[in-house]
Known about the structure:
This protein is mainly α. The chain contains six helices and two strands. Helix 2 (20-35) packs antiparallel against helix 3 and helix 2 packs across helix 6. It starts with a helix and ends with a helix.
Amino acid sequence: MTSRTLRKQLEDLTNQLEGFQKIFLNKVANELVNRSPVDTGAYVESNTISTSRSAGRSRSARIRTTSPDPEQNRQLARQQLAGDIAGIPDEATKVYITNRSPHSRYVESRHKVFGKTKQNLPELARQAFQEAKK
Length: 134
């Protein structure tokens, strides 16, 4: 294989995968939102995707009542996460997915939102790869 051929193949692969990161992160965000229980909405609205470990939203359930429309809380969470993802530079090599709600450990121990999402990452990556190739 000549260097010209190899260079062309790498260029083609790079073009095919352009956008993979954003597609993948959006799939992860949707998975988190879909797996997150909604009582007051505080937990689902506290999910954050960032390039900084210390960044993150924190909503408390203490002053909230049971949400009359859990889907509205999920939609807000999706919008917030989409904004987070849009702000991540294309050249970023590391992202942090956090939930800083005061009750996040309790929710994770009961519902395994992050644990189950993590288990599904290979499938989400496969789906994102297929979409990015189109």
